[in-house]
# Entry
Amino acid sequence: MTCCYETIEGMRGKLTSGAISSVELTRESINRITDLNPSLNAVITVNEERALDAAAKADAARREGNSSPLLGIPMLHKDIFCTQNMPTTCASKMLEGFVAPYDATVVKRLNGAGMVTLGKCNMDEFAMGSSNETSHFGACKNPWDTARVPGGSSGGSASAVAAGLAPLATGTDTGGSIRQPAALCGITGLKPTYGRVSRYGMIAFASSMDQAGPMARTAEDCALVLEAMAGADPLDSTCSDQVVPAYSAHLGDCVQGMRVGVPKEFFANDLNSAVAETIEASLKELEKLGAKLVDVSLPSTSLGVSTYYVIAPAEASANLSRYDGVRYGYRCDNPTDLQDLYLRSRTEGFGEEVKRRILIGAFTLSAASYDQYFMKAQQVRRLISQEYEDVLSKVDVIAGPSAPNTAFALNDSSKSITDMYMEDVFTIGANLAGLPAMSVPAGIVEGLPVGMQLIGRRFGEVDLLRLAHQFQQRTTWHTLTPKMEERH
# Structure
């Protein structure tokens, strides 16, 4: 029995009925990683012995009456989450060989729910990138076309789920890094409200925007996983203590009359025309569900990218200052003095994109530039946040494209650094405002997936998930697979 493209809910049913065991599911995933990962480079660490041991324990727990919905389900973690006694590298030479002495809260909670950790996924180095090409371990590939990018920074997670290596992978989203790769790989990805999921043990990029979330085949799967991931954490002072709803229990709630805002700025010149047509068709499907489409405006959308690329690098430059070759991270050989140690350790340990952002951040935080750039960006961030708040006071959800294009070619020389940054033009606003947002498969353009983005009010994940779930009950885009094995 093959379960490679099965949903979590589908696997749960087979485990409950006894049709398959967790050990068998886990073995199938490991075999699939062995067969397909050489052409994808989506997974950079596999711990077979540990995974099979956890699966055997899950099978024993099920025999003893444990009926946890995630018990025995195999999964992968983005390599930004600390995992005890397993490498955690952030896809950087700076952390190559680092083995965390503890589990991140997300890892601990999913382990506690009985999930089986297979290993760690490739990513853009320190989560900095929109294509998964900045990894120290090499670029990850899109399973729909291995000559194309999977998106980033959670590209390895998206690629792994899309290729059926696991039904779930964790991701992190600072400016669109769950939603954009989910869209480009044809899966469902959810960025929760800032503070909904603990950041403890998640290696920091931009602390005021980083947020962990699930990447799976369906909204139903994301709902089940978010229930396990979310909730107050005394180890993270930014984590909310709001009660976690039973997200999966509300998936069938009526969406009749739900107001869906469609920002005109999301359909401007930045959007590929074929992608626009696909999203417009998906919006009509929402209408058929009983939702009411409402034209809205987010006039500061065009300012989001420039605002983000002042604030995020500034926070990154502060967060990454700890990697100096003395206390943490890679240490160069035979330094001649302290300055040489700092200079060569950081030069050799960080990749080009990370160094670029550290330099930008250091510049914008300097005394000469702080007021002109950093403070101005914070003012624009507040403006963007207020615009979203105003719109969401009139509608329940905002809908539009997740990304302006389908997956682009690896090593695309026609794309400048600015072009790369613009791939997040539609996703960045939700991070700046701290809002929940998700991407759901919405169509195929020239053989490549397109994602529709849904953005909700703070802690409004219930609305997003039920609308996405019912959209997926009407459509089949989320069931399409790249059929990697046929090309292997």
Remarks:
- The two ends are 20 Å apart (CA to CA).
- The chain has 16 helices and eleven strands.
- The chain has a mean pLDDT of 96.
- The longest helix spans residues 370-392.
